[in-house]
Write a structure and sequence with these properties.
Oligomer: single chain
Shape: globular
Number of domains: 1
Strand content: 15-25%
CATH class: Alpha Beta
Helix content: 10-25%
Order of helices and strands: HEEHEEHEE
Strand order of the largest sheet: 1-6
CATH architecture: 2-Layer Sandwich
Mean pLDDT: 89
Distance between the termini: 29 Å
Low-confidence stretches: none
Radius of gyration: 15 Å
Number of helices: 3
Length: 98
């Protein structure tokens, strides 16, 4: 019998690489004083954990590490909380295993 050991998502994400396009992030959070429910949801649903609360209680995004899954686009873009676009060619996530 062949039993595989479980692998955590974080361990798999470690193999991906991200080529940062300095000064041209593909995701931007709209300026806000109090985060909307959609922005707060992004803190929990982003699989790469790119969204965090800063010291002022505002949501910030760190795009290096983003796997471009589109979750934030579905939640935050329709409400205008974020601006999302594809990274320029050659930049963004580089998947190790396809």
């Amino acid at each position: 019998m062949n039993v595989e050991t479980p692998v955590r998502v974080e361990d798999k994400l470690f193999y991906n690489r991200y080529l940062v396009d300095v000064g041209r992030p593909h995701v931007k959070v709209r300026a806000h004083t109090k985060p909307s429910p959609q922005l707060l949801a992004l803190l929990k649903v982003c699989p790469a954990r790119c969204y965090e609360l800063n010291d002022k209680g505002q949501v910030e995004v760190t795009v290096d590490g983003c796997i471009e899954c589109g979750t934030c686009r579905v939640i935050g873009e329709p409400t205008g909380d974020i601006e999302w676009s594809y990274p320029r060619g050659g930049y963004g996530v580089l998947f190790k295993f396809g």
